[in-house]
Amino acid sequence: MDGNQPSGVPLGAYVLPGRVTDPGAVVDQARAAERLGLRTVWLSERWGTKDLGVIAGAVSQVTETIRIASGITHLQSRHPALLASLAMTAQALSGGRFVLGVGRSVDAMWTAVGLPRSSNASIVDHADIFRRLCRGEKVRYDGPAGTYPSLRLNDVPEQPVPPLVFAAIGPKGLGLAGRHFDGVLLHPFLTPAAVGRSVQIVRAAERAAGRPPGSVRVYATVVVACDLPPAEEVAVVGARAVTYYQIPGFGERLAAVNEWDPEPLARLRSHPLLAGIRGSADSVLTREELVEVASVLPAAWTGSAAAIGSARACHDVFQRYRAAGADELVLHGSTPDRLHSLFGPTG
Question: Domain Luciferase-like spans what residues (predicted)?
Fold first, then answer.
């Protein structure tokens, strides 16, 4: 299975997007993804009901060929030996289909939970420690990533080190991915033009590091609402946009990458329903409330940075992201069991 779809673009998709009370839904979603011929299923880890290790293990046992990726977890949220152990166990269970996606997140989160913030140096060193442990090496380390007098996995399966994918938005993160990672995961709600600019930064860093062209696989995340009634379309696209744009600093970064005027962010955040919310809005508000908040966003902030409408219209959007340099698209917002219309005769 090569993951190429009717538009000729390799596609993956998120399972269990957003808030989840029943993680068991991942079984049918993963099976649906494999039936559709998707290349990869992605999980955005969220503490409580979306633990990466448990979900990856479950998906590995109900699928045979599709890759299983985290998109994303964080390098400092688990001890290095535990993260490497999780990854290699997932490799053993899946027959080498696991991909580890990691990100930086925001400093406020790490302060709140009492874990160290990420720096570029700690991210690079964490990645090196991870790879060495997965190869069965003994690691002694004292540096930006912490102090580890003696680390080793005693039993390592005969499987390759999982590809490491770094989630990035700005030029520094994209450059880091180009120099040190196997892939880069681009954020939802980037326009094709923004993806094209991001790809150029990654490729330049790749060349500067002396890596072979195309070493870093570029995954562009695209929120999809295909053949849905207008109210459902807004719920899928607009509500998800709110969860990103409302975060101070994060919304500004997305606007900057898209070369948009950030003024609408102030109007969004002044909405009465967002008063007092410090974390992600979808951890507090209902879907209906998120839709109400989304009404203040400019139409271009969703319409030009998502795939909506008919199957043909969505595939045309996919082609634009592919032309911008994306190697694979990660469909978000609609779970694999709701993507069937993309693969019908009009797709």
Answer: 21-328
10 has which bridge partners? 4
Encoded tokens for 271: 């909405």
Contact present, 51 and 77 (Cβ < 8 Å)? no
From CA 67, how far away is CA 52, in angstroms rounded?
Answer: 14
pLDDT along the chain (347 residues), means of 10: 65 92 96 97 94 97 98 95 98 98 88 92 98 98 98 97 97 98 97 98 98 97 93 88 89 95 94 85 87 92 93 95 98 94 67
Alpha-carbon distance of 45 to 283, in angstroms, equals: 14
Could you give the angle at which helices 230-245 and 250-258 cross, rounded to 10 degrees?
A: 110
Structural tokens at position 336 = 């694999």
The tokens describing 20, both together, are 């989840």
